[in-house]
Each structure stands twice: as structure tokens, then as C-alpha cells.
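cron nightly-structures :: item 1 of 1
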Amino acid sequence: MAQSKACSPRCPSFKCAKNSAVYRRDGVMCRWTEEACNVANCQYSMCMKRRLLPGGICGETVRRRTVEKSFEDDFAAPVRLKGKALRKFGERELY
């Protein structure tokens, strides 16, 4: 299973909300803090695709977990009725 990757300031979807990111040959520098851009700890870092997760993890590299449900699990609990429906059917619970 592939591991999730950290977001990089070199990503085309990355944007600094303060417009402080300066792209240089050796890396991306932040004019606001005057040090290297750290996506995980910066509150102004954002993703244009809205895929940036807490901790600076790129949401496009995370796999979703799916849970298999059987069809009968949805109908296991009885349906409770109130008001007009209760008067119409005359029972409190339908199966």
C-alpha cells in the first residue's frame, strides 16, 4: 500500500495566502518568516484544489477506505412513526 506524501511548495496547486513564497534555485523561501517554506507548520499555506490535509499531507496521495455493507443491514432497525403516519397505519413500528 502506498504511503501518503507530504505537500510540497513546488506543487503547481500550492499557494501562499500571504504571497510570501519566493521560488529560488535551492528551494522555496518565505519572505514572511525569512526561512525555508514549511507547509506543515504554516497557517498561510493552502491548496488550490482544496486537497491539503492537516499536518501538511497531500490529499491526492491518500487512499480512501471503503466499507462493505450488506443490503440487510440497512433494514435491520424498525422505522418509528409519528403524527399522521402513525394514525394512518395504526402501529408504532414498521419492519
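cron nightly-structures :: done
The beta strands are 14-16, 21-23, 28-30, 35-36, 45-47, 52-53, 57-58, 79-80, 93-94.
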